[in-house]
Amino acid sequence: MLLTNEFTIREVRLEDAARLAEIYSFYVLNTAVSFEYYAPTVEELEERIRHTIEKYPYFVCEADNKIVGYAYAGAYSAREAYAWTATASIYLDKDYRRHGIGTALYDALEKRLREMGIVNILAGVAYCEKEDEYLSRDSYKFHLKMGYSPVARMKSVGKKFDRWYDLLWMQKKTNGARLKDKNPFRGLLLIPLMAVVTIVVFAITLLIDAYLIPWDTESLGHPAPAFTILAFIGMPFVNIGVCGFAIILTIIRLIRAKMKKRSVWRMTS
Ligand SMILES: CC(C)(COP(=O)(O)OP(=O)(O)OC[C@H]1O[C@@H](n2cnc3c(N)ncnc32)[C@H](O)[C@@H]1OP(=O)(O)O)[C@@H](O)C(=O)NCCC(=O)NCCS
Predict the structure, then answer these.
(1) What is the best residue among 76, 106, 142 to mutate for testing ligand 1's pocket, by most ligand atoms within 8 Å of CB?
(2) CATH number of 8-173
(3) What is the pLDDT of residue 269?
(4) How far apart are CA 225 and CA 210, in angstroms?
(5) CA 94–ligand 1 middle distance (angstroms)
(6) Helices (H) and strands (E) in the chain, counts
(7) CA distance to 46, 54, 83, 266, per residue, from 116 (Å)
(8) Region 86-93 average pLDDT
(9) Is the peptide bond before 223 cis (omega within 30 degrees of 0)?
(10) Domain boundaries, the chain
(11) Each residue's pLDDT tens digit, 9-37
(12) Nearest CA, atom 21, ligand 1
């Protein structure tokens, strides 16, 4: 419980390790939020901090005269091409959740990562279809709220407390661009496009017939306005074909989007 309603964010110090170990050990020992089995010692955590701050930002939040949470970034992979992609992790004292501290810590972390030139942030979130006593959807909901999108779900990759848990990778672009699905209606643009094409085709055929093959009105249109007639017969078929394709494509995309939404809904519920 946040007593003073005030908190500050600052960079981590090595001497914070003991308090961070205390906060983290709760999640290691009692939840599946972390896939570690054994809580790291203070020395181990100090070593992890030292290693992280060599290259990445690491922030703690202080409130009520103690550290109540921390967030840090890390490398997604040591391979050079991943240099613009970082991971983010965050842990709050269990009694200090839902006070905006997570948001403030992530804001600070993301700002620093952006300044470093990091383009993608990935959060690996432990996930299960049904919440249980070891794992809630809090982290998933928090990351959604912070603008992260689920991009990959690895099924049953972590076994803890004799249960299998998934790992959900959630991604955010540091430039604010949302990882949005494309508009399923975009195929319908073919319909106005076809209308324009049809008008142009008719205009061209009329011009050709009028100027290149002059109509002989006396002999009932002989030689025939051949191109115009061809266009009048052909274009409806072309239109029906293209527009039909656009409509069927849109229906397929809508069904696929609905199925995808349903699976996200299953994640959220
Ligand atoms: C996930 C965690 C960091 C969120 O931090 P927090 O300070 O509680 O989050 P905030 O108060 O800043 O909440 C921001 C938004 O996240 C969402 N959110 C956070 N906790 C939520 C919860 N328990 N249920 C639903 N939504 C939640 C809400 O949309 C919230 O906005 P709102 O308060 O306006 O509704 C914190 O709960 C925590 O440390 N959890 C345990 C460790 C953990 O899961 N770490 C992530 C490992 S990847």
Answers:
(1) 142
(2) 3.40.630.30
(3) 43
(4) 8
(5) 11
(6) 6, 7
(7) 23, 13, 11, 36
(8) 98
(9) yes
(10) 8-173, 184-268
(11) 999 999 999 999 999 999 999 999 999 99
(12) 138
Q: Which two tokens stand for residue 32?
A: 């599946």
Which amino acid is it at 246?
A
pLDDT score for 94: 95
Written as one string, the DSSP assignment of 67-124 is: EEEEEEEEES-SSGGGTTEEEEEEEE-GGG-SSSHHHHHHHHHHHHHHHTT--EEEEE
pLDDT (mean) for 52-77: 97
Distance between CA atoms of 219 and 214, rounded to whole angstroms? 12
**Is the confidence at residue 176, as pLDDT, over 70?**
yes
Residue whose token pair is 């055929």: 205
Distance 6 CA to ligand 1 centre (A): 17
List, in sequence order, the alpha helices (H) in the chain.
17-30, 42-53, 101-115, 138-145, 190-207, 226-268
Amino acid making up residue 145 = K
Which residues fall within 8 angstroms of residue 77, CB to CB, at 6 or more apart? Answer: 85
Q: Tell me how far the alpha carbon of residue 97 lies from the centroid of ligand 1, in angstroms.
A: 7
Q: Using CA atoms, how far apart are residues 172 and 51, in angstroms rounded to an integer?
A: 24
Provide residues with CB under 6 Å of ligand 1.
27, 33, 89-92, 97-103, 123, 125, 138-139, 141-142, 145
